Amino acid sequence: MKKPKMGRSDYACQYRPGNSLVHRLPSGFKLVLGSCLCIFALAVREPLTLLLATILCLIYYFLARLTLSDLWRDIRFFLVQMVILVALFLYQYGYPTGLWMGVRTSLQILLFFIPGMVFIRTTQASNMMKGLRKVVPFRVLFLFFTSLRFVPLFARELREIAMAQKLRGAELSPRRILSPCFWHDIFFCIFIPLIVRALTIADEAALSAQARGMGAFPERTFYDERALEKHIALLMEEKRLPASQSDQRGHEG
Questions:
Q1: CB 9 within 8 A of CB 73
Q2: What is the pLDDT of residues 83-131, one digit of tens each?
Q3: C-alpha–C-alpha distance, residues 209 and 199, integer Å
Q4: Helix (H, G, I), strand (E, B), or coil: what is residue 9?
Q5: What's 196-244 look like in SS3?
Q6: Cis omega (within 30 of 0) on the bond before 17?
């Protein structure tokens, strides 16, 4: 049988169900491994060690059976800050010192976030919370992991706001974005609507959590998709057994 192909991501850092090696790792182990990769990426200073850190992060990313399209969706926002950082370092230190410092700093920032991207793409929120609920209050866990899940949502909101502003006539081409003269317009066209939208979503999320009884009980229950699938399969198997037994009795009769 052919393995079903993984669906295409709708937005950056979207959870991708799968059966890869990284998906099967415990969430606590992925946190430790990701933290080690982040520390190593920030600690490197030489080109060879930076290249090694890049290779390790990319191997970790593609071990989760994520595609180049997924990688582009996850890192394309970082490419803008890379251009800005390189330009600022070149302005401050000149060529070639500023070029190397800008590339190194921007690449370290990108590599620092890649393990977190893999963690979000390969780990259910329920599994994340179950791994830490014994040592961290579930209110803190709920706030933290809900914030993580809102990262791709706000990325999508940012794209939709930019498209809406372009339809209204705003000049948001890459050339305009890179020019400091237009950052004032970009702030009012993009970031002010995004902040308003973020406050609205936060209020809706708080009302939704309150309606579901968040904080009403001292213990917290967690939805586990895999456990539910096993339970449903067991129930279906139990239903098949009496049906097969009745068919056997009918044949014997």
A1: yes
A2: 888 888 888 888 888 888 888 999 999 999 999 889 888 887 667 666 6
A3: 15
A4: coil
A5: HHHHHHHHHHHHHHHHCCCCCCCCCCCCCHHHHHHHHHHHHHHHHHHHH
A6: no
Q: State the distance between the two ends of the chain, measured CA to CA, in whole angstroms.
A: 40
User: Angle at CA 8, nearest 5°, toward 7 and 10?
Assistant: 125
CA distance 232 to 54: 42
- Integer Cα distance of 192 and 251 in angstroms: 74
In this structure, how many other beta carbons lie within 10 angstroms of the beta carbon of residue 115? 23
- Give the number of C-alpha atoms closer than 13 A to the C-alpha of residue 203, restricted to the C-beta side: 6
Cα 79–84–90 angle (5° rounding)?
125
**Residues 116 and 22: beta-carbon distance below 8 Å:** no
Return the top range by mean pLDDT from 138-147, 230-239, 242-251.
Answer: 230-239
Structure tokens at 218: 């001292």
Helices (H), the chain: 21-24, 27-43, 47-63, 68-93, 97-122, 125-132, 138-167, 174-178, 183-186, 192-211, 225-252
pLDDT given at position 238? 76
DSSP 8: P
Confidence at 74, pLDDT banded by 50, 70, 90: confident
